[in-house]
Amino acid sequence: MIGSVFLALAAVVAVIDWWAVARDRRSVELVAKPLTMALLVATAATLGDPASDVRVWLVIGALFGVVGDTALLGDGEGAFMAGLGAFAVGHLAYAVAAVSFGFSWAWAMPGLVFVGGLLGYRFATRTLPGAVDHGGRVLGGAVVFYAVVISAMVITSWATGLIVAAFGGMLFALSDWVLGHRRFVGPLPGGRLAIMVPYHVGQALLIVGLATG
Fold it and tell me: What is the value of pTM for the model shown?
């Protein structure tokens, strides 16, 4: 019951954050963005009745989302790299939680197709060259590592056979791809809402799927 309450509160605060992003209300976003993830941490800690190791990894994944969100509220390359590192740890934590359910190659195939199309072709032809132009080989290497981690998270979420978690993984990856494209290639339709909506919904679905699966 308490987990559902935290999830509902996270949904309300997420909508407030989306409104702040759409209206460019920075002062509201500074509070609503990390608070949404903090409420998802509470959701991960209380929702459902997963094995203890699954719950631990879900909480770690969401906690590093809070860290990454806080870092990306800053400006500059240092803030971006700090956020990148935090989210990489978060993705790995979600992947470990997913692997705890087992790994089915048959179920993993849609995830492989997804990352091959989005994070493979689009990343290799647009995002990675843009990152190298923007920050050289060091940034390019960091972005490649991050793409590998994202791919692992998507594939393992699909490999559970839990559809809710699988779609959550894809939405989370889509959010990261939009962020990378906007930063290193150019704008996309939807502005920053195209990052934040799939980001919040994706993590919520990951947590719900893996906590109640």
Answer: 0.93
